[in-house]
Amino acid sequence: MEQQWATTVRPVWPRGLTEDWDRFEKATPGLTDRIAVYDEIAAKGKPPAPHYYLGVIGIDPNLHGLGIGTQLLKSFCDLSANDRLSCGVYIETAKASNLGFYERAGFAETGRGSLGSATLWCMYLPHGPR
Asked: Strand 108-115 and strand 52-54: pairing?
């Protein structure tokens, strides 16, 4: 039996989380507009085929260069590659210093845009459906 790891159906947020988010949104001027710009940039860079989305990955800077980040990324990409419904892995980064890391792993830029003084890069690693 094939195990389903992910779904494209957006879950309903728990009530407490919704209330926390509402307070956070009200306390952070410009947040809604900034998120809308982020979503617009990301929507243009996302592949149309089913894919895995890697929202956050990070390693303590003191541990950089040890291959830990590469192994984490590879493990995630392997999950996607072994899912017959997935055609690849999509990521976003706002750190130019991350671009080389992702490019060495086989990711290519699919879009970019300005988030005020920052840039958001969209990247994709295709592997085709299984």
From this structure: unpaired
| Structural class in CATH, domain 15-126 | alpha beta
- For 75-105, the pLDDT digits (tens) are 999 999 999 899 999 999 999 999 999 999 9
Angle subtended at Cα 126 by Cα 121 and Cα 129, rounded to the nearest 5 degrees: 145
Residue 11 CA: distances (Å) to CA of 8, 54, 87, 112, 116: 9, 18, 23, 28, 30
Q: Fill in the amino acid letter for 89.
A: V
Distance CA 45, CA 35 (A): 15
Are the C-beta atoms of 98 and 126 separated by less than 8 Å? no
Indicate the pTM of the whole model. 0.81
